[in-house]
């Protein structure tokens, strides 16, 4: 992800500690200087950097006094850096929490071009996917095209929309839209306002008027993360005009200066709720300071990974799938559910960055889009299948394949590819189920090569290539085993999550305990 530059610089410094022949005060100063340079060049405010380095030195010195030598230095430095950076991002104020069955209004504010309109759509999509009843209101009467942009976005994510290109008064539009959607019992009503230049007092006046008219439960301030320290003044100006409840920072993909935006926003004491990490509607990451910092430092974030995986697969589907697989069946419907889960997880790059030692840059953006486009196409084909076809374990005959291709607007060879993929998946599920046998598992642990063969066989070859091949996958698994924060996680879920994420159909197979045990030894 963005800030990956800062992350990799800091991780390099931490690695240096492991390989150092002599650890003393001089070495500690050198390490702290490197950390300082990395943070400052990522535009983190000097006062934060100074506090962080002082804190690290104090912790290490205390430990040194106690132990009489520099031991565990890497761990102490890492922990203190994580804690101090997390502190920068923790605010006392908590963001608004939506309640089910109640109409709540959220007003989006921000400067021109900050990415507000795109972000309102991402925000709406995030909640629609979680089953909320969401509506969008466009009251940007300033920018030509704003109405069309939001209307089209809303259509793409199948969200209710209100706007009125003939009305010039944004307060009227906002009030009308909110009223209509409240009557229709929408739960989250998102109001997109005009973005203008900061010097324009009129923008702030208009914002206040809309705010008074619709009395939103939450004001979300959208800020362009690529502008570094300038974010600070911006955030303050908006905060003084309306009660900014929370912040979304956009364009954190591909810009190393994001550190500045983060510390600036934190300084205004409004919690960051999401990060915008791309132009598509699922390029929105929920923000959690500690996990963000850990990922930033390349330490991975296993707990978020598990949460993402379990959020993506509805509980009843998990049980249903487990039952089907126990009976040794893997149907096209199961595969459809799995594909849907992979898409629900959002950006694959984001999921990757939650894995220790990996970051989202490991999957080139284009490739990621390619992979999800392929999965979506498969889903269209499966949408054209009958219930009986989805549940059948028998191969589909050519006339059915022809019909499915016609119905889904794809070609016969594409449907055949899907069938091939399905066969590969179900074969793999069969193999994986055998591995539930403890004897087979023990053998696997003795023979890592075999384990690797099975593992890479479970992953879509194209996906495997995108992930850097079988070797990279093995390192990733080792990383999972070594990962801090794995405590309390039963390895089974770990492996299952990974396999689901990578597109392996089905549950059950590779019991993770073995993998995890190996990594820890
Ligand atoms: N790379 C990247 N681009 C983004 C992100 N969010 C928005 N954009 C792009 O930023 C540009 C401006 O986005 P809009 O949503 O139109 O901006 P806006 O703030 O509504 O603009 P105004 O209506 O003029 O205030 C568009 O090209 C978006 O695709 C992001 O997280 N990453």
Automatic annotation (TrEMBL):
InterPro entries noted in UniProt: AAA+_ATPase, P-loop_NTPase, Signal_recog_part_SRP54_M_sf, Signal_recog_particl_SRP54_hlx, Signal_recog_particle_SRP54_M, SRP/SRP_N, SRP54, SRP54_euk
Gene3D superfamilies per UniProt: P-loop containing nucleotide triphosphate hydrolases (3.40.50.300), Signal recognition particle SRP54, nucleotide-binding domain (1.20.120.140), Signal recognition particle, SRP54 subunit, M-domain (1.10.260.30)
A single GO BP: SRP-dependent cotranslational protein targeting to membrane, translocation
Reactions accelerated catalytically: GTP + H2O = GDP + phosphate + H(+)
Family annotation (CDD domains): SRP54_G
Pfam families: SRP54, SRP54_N, SRP_SPB
Annotated keywords: Cytoplasm, Endoplasmic reticulum, GTP-binding, Hydrolase, Nucleotide-binding, Ribonucleoprotein, RNA-binding, Signal recognition particle
UniProt domain SRP54-type proteins GTP-binding: residue ranges: 271-284
Gene Ontology cellular component terms for the protein in this record: cytosol; endoplasmic reticulum; signal recognition particle, endoplasmic reticulum targeting
Entries under PROSITE patterns matching the protein: SRP54
GO molecular function: 7S RNA binding; endoplasmic reticulum signal peptide binding; GTP binding; GTPase activity
Cell compartment(s), UniProt: Cytoplasm; Endoplasmic reticulum
Protein task: Component of the signal recognition particle (SRP) complex, a ribonucleoprotein complex that mediates the cotranslational targeting of secretory and membrane proteins to the endoplasmic reticulum (ER).
Cited NCBIfam families: SRP54_euk (TIGR01425)
UniProt comment concerning the protein's domains: The NG domain, also named G domain, is a special guanosine triphosphatase (GTPase) domain, which binds GTP and forms a guanosine 5'-triphosphate (GTP)-dependent complex with a homologous NG domain in the SRP receptor subunit SRPRA. The two NG domains undergo cooperative rearrangements upon their assembly, which culminate in the reciprocal activation of the GTPase activity of one another. SRP receptor compaction upon binding with cargo-loaded SRP and GTPase rearrangement drive SRP-mediated cotranslational protein translocation into the ER. The M domain binds the 7SL RNA in presence of SRP19 and binds the signal sequence of presecretory proteins.
Family: Belongs to the GTP-binding SRP family. SRP54 subfamily.
Name of the protein in its database record: Signal recognition particle 54 kDa protein
